[in-house]
Design goal:
Elements: H1 2-7, H2 13-23, H3 31-61, E1 74-78, H4 84-91, E2 97-98, H5 102-106, H6 110-125, H7 129-141, H8 160-165, H9 183-186, H10 193-214, E3 219-224, H11 231-237, E4 242-247, H12 250-268, H13 277-299, E5 305-309, H14 310-315, H15 317-327, H16 334-348, H17 365-371, H18 373-379
Parallel strand pairs: 1-3, 1-4, 2-3, 4-5
Helix pairs in contact: 12-13
Amino acid sequence: MFMLDRFSVYIHFPTLLKIVRTTYSRQAIHPRHAILTCAFLFMFIVLRCIVSLVRMLDLVFFPGYRKQPIIAPIYIVGNPRSGTTFSHRLLAQDDQFIYFKLWHTIFPAVTFYKVFGFCSIVDRWVGRPFSRAMNWVSGKGFRGWESIHQTGPAAAESDEMLFMYAMLSPLLGLMFPFFRELDVAMFVDHLPEKNKRKLMVYYRDCLQRHLYATGPERILLQKVALIAGRIQTIYETFPDMRIVHLVRHPYESIPSLVSMFQVPWKRLAPQALTNTLRSRELAQIIYAYYRSLLVMKQRLPDSQFIEVRYEDLVADPKRTVERIYQEYGLELSLKFNDSLDKEVERAKAYQSRHAYSLDDCGLTRDEVREALADVFEAYGFRP
């Protein structure tokens, strides 16, 4: 059983069953969503089977990954829409770090990495037709997010897809906005201990494969904006983890996230837009995430926890990065310093076109402030 858990891809079947039951229930069913759910589940099962089989090939061709240590990884965390992606992509310019690209999380196997690496060489030889096709597909898949969250197969990303494979990720809400019904996917920390152990065996195994294949001697740099519901479990798995916590005012982060989820709802789950119920349920989850991250701040020593205010990051990104390096004893190389200057200059020219407000979520400032009174006090947020 241990071997099966370790080398296959863990799935939390109760969540999968709840998705099916709720999607086709009388209260939630919508013709378009019902059809898309069938297509999603078919593609999910096919992809899961392929990934599981290829991961088993790693045992034959790359068994050394099982001995790969994971030492003091750095996790950039925060409630979604708090600057975690920007911070992550700044630090990812430094060669001392290794990080996930989006395609790594979709195909988490050393064998995939090697095969795709060879295909990339061939693709360059023949004029990059495969790269252009993937960029086109990515553009279609993330349509509507251009001004919210720019991403693509080769972009530095979080490891959220690893948890999507396990049916234990808040991203399920993008297509299945049944937040109360899928509560356990939002809060892995609430799972029974047996399930958490199995999930973390699988998760550690994924990280070992990635480090082994891409940079065994480098520091693992993670960015996870939806980690709060499982941060206690991950901390127990990696007690030497180092956290950079991005903090943004709830009046800004909550409506920004809700508007991000509403983009795919228009195409995939239009019933979620008939009223503000689903948006308000999502906001309730973020309330709990704020509290969970506050608990981690109070639990961890300063040597493992750095707090960064969103407004400080935006005002002076380079100084923020320098502070992180200083507090964690990291070397700021001349090469990275030059790259950092260039990235900061690009950031200055960026103008967001993402518009959002609490009203769009069916929320008011008074309601948010009352729900997060302890968080407002702890962080000194303006009312």
